[in-house]
Amino acid sequence: MADPNDSVSVDMEKIYLGGKEYHVRTGQGSVSVIVCGDQDKPPLITYPDLALNHMSCFQGLFFFPEAASLLLHNFCIYHISPPGHELGAAEICPHDPSPSADDLADQILEVLNYFGLGAVMCMGVTAGAYILTLFALKYRERVIGLILISPLYKSPSWSEWFYNKVMSNLLYFYGMCGLLKECLLQRYFSKEVRGSAEVAESDIVQACRKLLDERQGNNVLRFLQAINRRPDITEGLKRLRCRTLIFVGDSSPFHSEALHMISKLDRRYSALVEVQACGSMVTEEQPHAMLIPMEYFFMGAPFSRKHGIKAKTYKNPHFLNIVVVVDRTDFGFDEGRL
């Protein structure tokens, strides 16, 4: 096995895009899964936010060399796309029943069973974080840990419900129109990277906008409807015993929800990282802020000794003064700035 402390100096695009795609048939239709890495390594599954897939939601994290070294050297990655969100997806038949959030969580179990996986590490963004948390509550023995980025856990507030209904109507009548894409970009990114009349939007926003052009409006609508009807899982959080690491940007529309969520989790197993000047999608906007907390988080996981996961000392100054960690001492975190 390669030393997890080695740096990555190979073509990251070939590593990241070189995974094999599987179409897993489930009780709720076919699901696309991209598998990257050695399947003998511990499994880490990802689930993206609304209207995204692994390319548009996790590309920044896996293109960041140190994070790619940590993740690809120590895990086999299983990128699960919501139904109809994979690259080149056809439109799902409008007459097919729309899945619920519970149905989507059950699909994950079917995917794990298809690949013969036991307990897995999970990483999800916003809507995807909700689906993975729900999965962890329903199938606790199948989850080692949760890495949640700007997560949801309550039923939609009136303001979120209304915002989602506006997007639903846009999708129903106009598909992936310009206004709908602007609503989604506000959901994902901070104002700083979205730009203004005087400042051009950043490359990551332009890339995301281009990838949104490829989505099928009806497929996105089905996922949005499932999320807008999601049940409140607050009571279940109190009984969640898997290790949980939450990241949230301080400019995320879901910042307050993440703060409330961490207060409901058992302090012995959970930690929160607030990322300054960042929107919801920390994986794309500031992936470097995730590296050190993830390393310490993985060190406490059951497989860490067997697979030699270690923390490293970084000399690169861009890791400093970026995140604020709400203390959960079991992870080796101290309150304050990294």
TrEMBL record:
The chain crosses the membrane at residues 114-137. Keywords: Membrane, Transmembrane, Transmembrane helix. Pfam families: Ndr (PF03096). The keyword Membrane applies. InterPro entries: NDRG. It comes from the Eukaryota. The keyword Transmembrane helix applies. This is Protein NDL1. It comes from Cucurbita argyrosperma subsp. sororia. The gene is NDL1.
